[in-house]
Amino acid sequence: MPIRSNLHTHTIYCDGVSTPREMAEAALANGFVSLGFSGHSYTPYDDCGMSPAQALAYRQEVLALQREYAGRLEIFLGLENDAVAPQPLEGYE
């Protein structure tokens, strides 16, 4: 059975190499039914996490993709949050 979903991905906003849009397009092209983004949250001691400004841009882009791809690809906005990260969790799925 082919895999049609990935709920743990990273983008250019943290330690990934692709934009959320590139990943959504690739997911659709490969027959995925859902895609979850799980960017690393900000922590003051770890450079692979998103800065507060990057986290805002990440949220805005993924939420826009949710609307754009509705009915074709289910997109989830997630956050890989460190236990001591100051990142608020409201609004993430």
Shape verdict: elongated
Distance between the termini: 27 Å
The largest sheet, given as strand count, sense and whether it forms a barrel, is:
3 strands, parallel
Q: Helix share of residues? A: 25-40%
What class, by secondary structure content?
A: alpha/beta
Overall pLDDT metric:
91
Strand content range: 15-25%
Instruction: Name the poorly predicted regions.
Output: none
Can you write the helix and strand succession as a string? EHEHE
Total DSSP E strands? 3
Largest beta sheet: what is the strand line-up?
A: 1-2-3
Radius of gyration: 13 Å
**Tally of separate helices:** 2
Helices and strands in order:
Elements: E1 5-6, H1 20-29, E2 34-40, H2 52-68, E3 74-80
Parallel strand pairs: 1-2, 2-3
Structure report:
- The chain has 93 residues and is an alpha/beta fold.
- The chain has a domain at 25-30 and 41-84.
- It has 2 helices and 3 strands, in the order E-H-E-H-E.
- Strand 1 (5-6), helix 1 and strand 2 (34-40) form a beta-alpha-beta unit.
- The model has no long low-confidence stretch (mean pLDDT 91).
